[in-house]
Structure formats: C-alpha cells, structure tokens
Model the fold of this input.
Amino acid sequence: MVVKIDNLVKRYGDLIALDHFNLEVAEGEIFGLLGPNGSGKTTAIMCMLALLKFSKGEVSVFGKPMRPDAYDIKRDIGIIMQNVAVYDELTVFENIDYFCGLYILDKKKRRELVEEAISFVGLNEFRRFYPRKLSGGLLRRLNIACGIAHKPKLIILDEPTVAVDPQSRNKILEGIVDLNRQGATVIYTSHYMEEVEQICTRLAIMDKGKVIASGSTSELKSMIRTGEKITIELIDEQDTQVVKTVEQIQALPTILSASLNHKTISARSEQNRHSLSAVTHLLNENKIAYGRVYCELPTLNDVFLEMTGKHLRDQQGV
Amino acid sequence: MYRHVFYYRLLSGLRDRETLFWTFLFPIILATFFNFAFSNLNADETFSQVPIAVVKNNDWDQDTTLQQVLQELSTDDDSLFSMQLVSIGQADSILLADEIVGYLIPGEQLEVVIRYSGLRQSILKVFADEYVQTRATINHLIKENPNLDIRSLFQTTVSLIEDQPIKAEATDNVVVYYYALIAMTCLYGGFWGLREVIAVKANLSRQAARINLAPVPKMKQFIYTMSASFVIHFVSVLLLLLYLTQIIGVHFGDQILSVLLASLVGSTLGISIGALIGVLGNQSEGVKSAILIGFSMLMSFFSGLMIADMKYIVSSQAPVLRWINPANLISDAFYASYYYETSTRFWHNVVAMLIMQLVISIVVVSIMRRQRYASV
Done:
C-alpha cells in the first residue's frame, strides 16, 4: 500500500473531525476522497502528511510510519492544496523553481523539471507573470505545477478545481489522469461527484469524519437499493387522474418510490430491475399525456443520499 | 539548498513593497521631515550678545554693585550683554531704532523697558528680577546678622553630579532625534522577522504549510530565510545611515565602528522581536503587523523619538524601562558612542541588547521547533 491509515481520531475541542478514519490507497490508483464540505477530507490529508496533531491512530506512507521529520518519504510526495499557496512576489517560473528546488538540488535537472511542469499545466506564455496577474484558473494551474514539478510518486490534490472555469477544470482533470499514466499514485479530494466519477479508479465517501463506503464507482452504486431513476414530464396540469396514476406507479413491485412535483413524475426503481415499460404502460392506460421521458442510472449522489439521508451538496459552500 | 532558499527569499523580499516601505522608505521620509523641522533649531540656539542700555541716573551712581555686575556681564564679545550707558531720552530713541532690545532704569525695582517680547527681552527681564531678588536677600541677611560673611555663603556648594567626560565636539542635541529614528528603523526590522515566521509556520500561511511538507527541516528553512531578511534589513539601515550622514549632514562623531556595531546588533534585535510577535499566538498577519507597529512606536516614544526629554524622564522615573526598552538600548548605544569619551555605557547597551536577543531567540526557536500543529 502507498498509504495506510488506521483508526485515525482527530478532535478540535469537542468536535470530532476524524472519527476512527481508515484508508488504504494502492500503488497506481487515482483514489477519490468524496464528501461534502466539512466532512473531514482536508483534515485527513493534513494528518496523513504529519502536519496536524491527532489524538489516535497510525499513518504509514510507502510502508513507513509518517512523521514530520520523515524527509525521505516527503521527498516523494507532491501536495496541491485547496487554497493557492504561491508567493505573490515571485513570477510563475520563479515560484515553480523555488518549490521544486526544495526537493531537487541539481540545478540543471531542476531547470528541466520546471520547464516540463510549465508545459504540463499550459503556462508557457505566462511564465514571467506574477500570480496577481493570473486568472483563477491559471492560478490553480500554477498551484498544481508547484506541487508536481519534482515528479513525486504520490500526488495529493485537495479540491484543486474549486472556483475554476470549465476549460481549466478539464485541463486539470486531464492532467491528473496523465500524471497517473506516468506512474504517480493520486489521492484526489473533492465534493464534485462528477469529477470523482470521471477520473477515479477507486473512492471513499466521507461524512462526519468517517468513511461510510469505499470501492470502485460501480461497487458503490451496487451497494444501494436504487437502480434506474425514471423522470416523466407531463403535458397537462396535474389532476386526480394523474395523482391516481402516481399511486399506481408507486404500487408497482419494482418501484421503490414515486412522487409528483408540478408537472413531473419521478420514480426510483430497484437495483437491477427495469420498470420503464411498466410505468409508460400505466401512463398510456390512464390516458396521461406526457412529453419527455428520462431514464438515468444511479449517481454517487444517490449513494450518498441513501447512506446519509442527505445530498452530497447539502453543505456545499462554494 | 541554502543558496537556493536564500536567493529566492532575497528576491521575494526585495520585491515586497509593503515591507520595504516600512523598513526603508518610511525612515528615509521621517529623516527628511526631521531635517526640515530641525534645520534652524541649532541656528536659533546659537548665542549672540543681548544689546541693552542702562539709564544713568542718581540710583545708578549709588548702586556700585549693579555697576560691577553689569560690567562683568558686558566686558567683551563673549559676554551676555553689550551695554550702553545713556540718558532716558537717548534710551528711548535707540530702543525705537531697534539698536537695543531694552533698557534698565536703576532704582528700588530696577525697571525694565522693552519694545517687543522675545527670548532676548526675557533674558534682560530675568536678569533684572534675579538682581533685585538677590539684592533684597543680601540686604535682609546683613540686617539680621551684621557680622555675616556674605562671600562664604556663595562659596559653599555641594556637588551632587558625577562628572562623565564628554567629547569636545559633542554639542548637537538634534542627533538624539536621529538616534531614536535609527532605533525605530532597527525595530522595524521586526517586519522582516514577522514575514519569515509567517513564511515558515504552517498554521500562519498556506505557503508555509507547503514548505512544511517539503523534505527540508523547518529550522534550517527558518535560518535560511531569516538570513536573507537580515541582509535586506541591515543594508536598509546602512543606507539610512548613509542618507543621514551624506545627504542630510548629521554628524555622528568619529566612532564609525561603534555606529556600525550598534546598527548590526540593533537590526538583529529588531528582526528577533518581529519573529517573537510572529510565533506568539495565531492572529492574522494584519493583527501581528499592527502589534509590531504599535510596539515599535511606543518603545521609540519612550526612547525620545517624539520628545527628546522622554529619554531622561524614563531614566529618572522608570529606570527598569530604560533597560528593557530595545529602542532605548539602540539609541542609547549611539548616544553613548557620540557623547562620551569612555565606551562603558556603549558596551552596557550592546550587552543588554545581546542578552535580550538571546532570550527572544530561545523562545522563538522553542516554539518554531514544534513539528505538528493543532490546526492549519
């Protein structure tokens, strides 16, 4: 295992930020740590990196205990923090060179790595710019370049796409996959489930400082009862006939729940069961006019919803 | 590694306009204002004789003591008065022509006639009052005790003042203000100390958190960055000294090595104080900067930056503060090297600064060595 965390407990006064938190990340993975804001993702990362004190638990990285003075381990880690951590008085090139120089002493080799990192994040034309002149997206890219220029074996990205435009976001996500292809193990924290689904090979869902489920995306989705979700947009206003039809849909043996919201009927089908034809049959039979019909597979939000009773973005702050 | 960190912290520091303003530009601006404010101060204090007249009347002829005293006070060009003996009419006319600042009419009260009010007129008035009062006292004593030897009264004096040899050329009181200004500048080195603590202490900045995750021991990183800041600050202080001596024309005497040593120790002390404010508590950078400015200004006030006499008030009323006020220690080291022939007082100040710096460094290092944080 590249990272192994056992029973980590972290308290801030009376608040338990990490509650017997466990995690295992294997070599070559893009591991997603998914959870709403305040669920303990960043705290878990900071404890893992021996930056934060914790009350209980053990952390090992590359098979060795992680301590603040474990410089041989730190040499192979790259961290991209949630908040941009660069110097305003240094240019793009100088910032990357400075942070890379804390890991790589050979000047020639460092120069090559810095150039590579600048190209990788697409900041070639901004190399002489000061950070305050960069847009939010470009700033995030600089933040990433500062964390990966020394070619670490383990890269930790803590919500790197917060407040980033779609173009930069795609560039960042493609870059992460590229880094993984080049051999790096990646830990990626986010509250954006689409991103995690898009790039992560395995993930853990966190809530209130605990891992409530972990596995691949399909494994997680198979853990819940919800299968496909059916949405029907009605043409006419709802009437007693529509209400009666929704009750009939609810009564279908493969349907977990059905609801009516203005001119939209939503129904959740059981895992591995198909209910679309039965639902449309009832609509036709009761002469309910409908326009569009959608059928979607469950998302990670459904997994979170079923496990915690709340939406992943309930506590979203951004 | 050292050269890499040193180079980038030096570069970063030289581009940090806000810190450079407080530690370099602000003292230069203050020195320029001081120069404007004090340029005529010494000229005003240069003594010139007070031209007076005395009306020659019967009382003058009878008052031989007054004649002797005024003669003593107007014998040559260095005397207090240049005196003319005239009639009342002549006295009025030369007063109107501004040839004299006033005249005396001998008599029971020794009347003073002036046309304008001012320092020189006040000197004449004070003389007249002193004379009348002393004459009355002596007359009273003789009346009470006719055998009293008046001369012995004035010869019996007790000295409560210990003599310290003062340099012959040390006559410019304005330099006290410039010493306090240099002391303030040295203390403003605290901005650099604060800046470097913030750059290395993970719970104070994002950049520091990133640095703490790099494979470089934190104390090494701290020492490397502090050395870059020290170079910037010490050069700033030297440039201020150059500006004061070469552009403004302040004369600090011939003790250039003492001035440099006091600047060096003062600068490191200032940086250490900033570092101490940085490591204590988790307040924001803005709050810590405000504390540093407030502290520096208060200490500079007590060392005489705003009121030169404050230095003496503190020494007499709160002598402990004189030894624990870093601004006072720095400015007093300059003062001692400028005024006194002996270097004892200078070294007392330097040693006190070094002890203070040692204590502060022990506190800073013991807090900085903490390797994990409760929160970041």
Observations:
- The longest helix of chain A spans residues 166-181.
- Residues 314-318 of chain A have pLDDT under 50 and may be disordered.
- The radius of gyration of chain A is 24 Å.
